[in-house]
Amino acid sequence: MKTLIINCYRELPDKKIKNYCELIDNFSTYEVVYDKDVKKNFKVNDYNAVIISGSEDYISKGKYFKDFLKFLKSIKIPVLGICYGHQIIAKAFGVEIIHGLKKIIKPYPKNPEEVFILNKDEIFHGLDNNINVYESHIEYVNPEYLSKFGFKLLANSKSCPVETIKHLDKHLYGVQFHIERSGETGKKIVRNFFEFVVRKFINI
Length: 204
Fold this sequence. Notes:
Rossmann fold; two-stranded antiparallel sheet
């Protein structure tokens, strides 16, 4: 199994992507590319899955690459977006990204965000209905009309109305929280993604 990790960080990108690489390395070989290099016709034939990182950029302010959106709309293999990655998946299909009033920072494990699982999807297999995770963001996905744009809401929290989404027709998932910094809970979600989503897709 091979995973494409898309690095969306601008400041110290090679350093910040290390947590993602170390996490994915438990389940799959991987290759890292920058989002600016991912065009609509970027070849993913050699990969079984895509992981999209966080970023300092604000999508609501137009900080994204239009070619990257086209790539996300056309991709067929399983994708898991994290924080900014979660938001850019939603944006690619027309969902509004909102700039909040203040930044939400909930470090794990000292003062984590409690996320409420609303729909027990495969990626939450083996987890409680409430999970504690690392949260750091100011922007979030607009919960209005998610189904209109093809998404199902899987989880929320007191600070964020859209913590996890799943596309209804494609193998696309997004989590607002940082699974790469959420200890065993984050690792379990990634394991579920590879075991129940990616392997199922490979065997279709």
